[in-house]
């Protein structure tokens, strides 16, 4: 990828005898939003930390902004922004001071960081809270401030680890709008998220990781087309009248049996629902929906909880 900001080949990360990342290839193009999806322990955070130049790779090649993190770590870190999973703001400083003091770490002049702080306060919709201390702010406000702080050095690459975890829907959608605005301005973004709707909304391309390896790669639409069907029919039955999945399987491309319902993966949910009725099965409720990235994710990584 000629215009790639991040290029990894055979990237590996070991912690003692445990190999967290087992030979992944990644290309992130300038201007795109790239996502890492995967269950806990899949290797997402370890990969992100190597890209952020805070954790050395064990093996493989890695180029970030055309440089080798092992040699040019400080130069790379000066040109990227990092939004950690947990906010690490200075709660005793004001909102504006958090931006200005952080900007000074990059050697920026006082006049420059004052002007940049004013710009970022408007971007994060925090202008009216500029002189308030951080501690009383809501979770959404703190998250917006953390993202604004990561932009103080005008990064070419922004790394976001679970950017909207713990936020209410309104705050999540406001952050999505801010991140989309950054994309329009040409800021390349790499995101890890557990929210499949977030990945569908934000990511141009993404990889699904499991067990330290990449198990799928593509745009959200490509992955849904490749690993799922156009629609899903969800059927809930009276437990005493619920058919076995094997009995109903010929009516769909794939049937998944859950404790409370059957999922029938099909090209036409309404037609399949009619076929179910003609076969003599009467559900308590039926829902036809479009396949989503979550269907792909669960098919590739399983439904077993990973701690």
Automatic annotation (TrEMBL):
Look up and give the organism this protein is from. Answer: Pseudonocardia xinjiangensis
Cell wall biogenesis/degradation as a keyword of this entry, yes or no, is: no
Q: In terms of domain of life, where is this protein from?
A: Bacteria
Instruction: State the family it belongs to.
Output: Belongs to the ABC transporter superfamily.
| GO MF, any single term | ATP binding
Concerning PROSITE patterns, the annotation shows:
ABC_TRANSPORTER_1, ABC_TRANSPORTER_2
What membrane topology term does the record carry?
Peripheral membrane protein
| Cross-referenced Gene3D superfamilies | P-loop containing nucleotide triphosphate hydrolases
Question: What Pfam families would the database entry show?
Answer: ABC_tran
Q: Which UniProt keywords apply?
A: Antibiotic resistance, ATP-binding, Nucleotide-binding, Transport
What name appears for this protein in its UniProt entry? ABC transporter ATP-binding protein
Subcellular location, record wording: Cell membrane
Primary place of residence?
membrane
Q: Which residues cross the membrane?
A: none
Domain ABC transporter spans what residues?
6-236
């Amino acid at each position: 990828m000629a215009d790639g900001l991040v290029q990894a080949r055979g990237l590996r990360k070991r912690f003692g005898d445990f190999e967290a990342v087992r030979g992944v290839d990644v290309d992130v193009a300038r201007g795109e939003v790239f996502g890492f999806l995967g269950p806990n322990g899949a290797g997402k955070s370890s990969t992100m930390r190597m890209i952020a130049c805070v954790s050395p790779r064990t093996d493989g090649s890695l180029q970030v902004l055309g440089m080798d993190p092992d040699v040019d770590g400080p130069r790379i870190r000066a040109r990227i922004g990092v939004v950690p999973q947990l906010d690490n703001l200075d709660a005793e400083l004001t909102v504006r001071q958090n931006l200005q003091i952080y900007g000074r770490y990059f050697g920026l002049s006082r006049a420059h960081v004052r002007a940049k702080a004013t710009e970022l306060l408007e971007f994060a919709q925090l202008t009216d809270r500029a002189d308030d201390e951080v501690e009383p702010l809501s979770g959404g406000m703190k998250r917006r401030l953390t993202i604004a702080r990561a932009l103080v050095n005008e990064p070419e690459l922004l790394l976001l680890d679970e950017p909207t975890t713990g936020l209410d829907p309104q705050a999540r959608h406001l952050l999505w709008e801010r991140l989309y605005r950054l994309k329009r301005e040409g800021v390349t973004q790499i995101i890890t998220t557990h929210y499949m709707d977030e990945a569908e909304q934000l990511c141009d391309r993404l990889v699904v990781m499991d067990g330290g390896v990449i198990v799928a790669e593509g745009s959200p639409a490509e992955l849904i087309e490749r690993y799922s069907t156009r629609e899903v029919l969800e059927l809930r039955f009276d437990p005493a009248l619920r058919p076995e999945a094997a009995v109903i399987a010929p009516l769909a491309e794939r049937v998944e049996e859950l404790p409370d319902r059957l999922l029938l993966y099909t090209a036409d949910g309404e037609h399949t629902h009619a076929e179910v009725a003609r076969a003599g099965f009467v559900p308590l409720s039926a829902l036809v929906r479009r396949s989503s990235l979550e269907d792909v994710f669960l098919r590739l990584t399983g439904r077993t909880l990973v701690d």
